[in-house]
Amino acid sequence: MSRRFDYLADVEVFITVVEKGSLSAGAVLLATTPSVVSRAISRLETRLGVQLLRRTTRRLSLTEAGLLYLEQSRAAFSLIDDAERTIQGQEGALTGRVRLSVPTTYGHYRLPVVLCRFARQYPQVRIELSISNRNVDLVAEGYDLAIRLGPLPDSGLIGRKLEDARLCVVAAPDYLRRAGTPHSVDELPAHACLPFVMPSSGRVGPWLFCEQGIDREWIPEASVQVSDDVLGTVSLAEHGMGICQTYDFIVRERIESGRLVPLLEQSGGRSRPFSVIFPPHRQLSAASRALIDFLIRGVADQAHMPLNERQAIE
Fold this sequence. Notes:
Layout: H1 8-20, H2 23-30, H3 34-48, E1 53-55, E2 60-62, H4 64-87, E3 96-102, H5 104-109, H6 111-121, E4 125-131, H7 138-141, E5 145-149, E6 158-171, H8 173-179, E7 196-197, E8 207-211, E9 214-218, E10 226-227, H9 231-238, E11 244-247, H10 248-257, E12 261-263, E13 271-278, H11 286-303, E14 312-313
Parallel strand pairs: 3-4, 3-5, 7-10
Antiparallel strand pairs: 1-2, 5-13, 6-11, 6-12, 6-13, 6-14, 8-9
Helix pairs in contact: 1-2, 1-3, 2-3, 6-11
């Protein structure tokens, strides 16, 4: 009896080569040689009767048929992956894999406590964690969950709100001794501020204030701008380079130890939301659902916020 799908290994090779951008890079990931990878793709093209890849000495490119086959093959493998993870954890100990993308703020300051508790309770679940301020494409890149800052875009993604993270303005005692202490937002232009360039827009992120009950945004200008990792502004501020606005949960310990000093507290009270999101069409595995629950409860414990404020948003 012949097997209907005995060529699936060749399909996986094709997807891997396209994602890695070359035969050699795909071969490294698959622990084989470029010649073996090339033969696998040739077999697949022969079977389908179409050319999938244009090969030159310098680069690969997809044909129109190759692009269509890539999209549908990825969708098929995703369905198989979802089916496998859906049944995991239904009997016995929870098992499986969860791919999670988080920004550096959460990766370093919120997530460690939650993941330690999760790992102790579910030691057979494998967490593949990406810590980056890049907004990943959950579907195309195969992530199960992501934590995102700000209101969710109209993208069809489903989210559960984790918290409204309170903002604060801080500087090091050494900087304040040298430059003086600003007492209002209007005095900030005379100081060395440390703005962050938002990766989504390439523009400096506004600082948020509330003065006499009215919300205000202020765009800092400075000779030093930080991009890619927002935590860089905190590190620079701690070393006396200037003033930054960041989240209270990041600098609370530094404030309590005296390494940073809170400023303009009369103009504070603003916050930004963080949410955990996932694609609406994907059946969440038991492991993913368990991790979402841990995230919601774990952040609530750290932020001292009532659980009933975590509303589902779509």
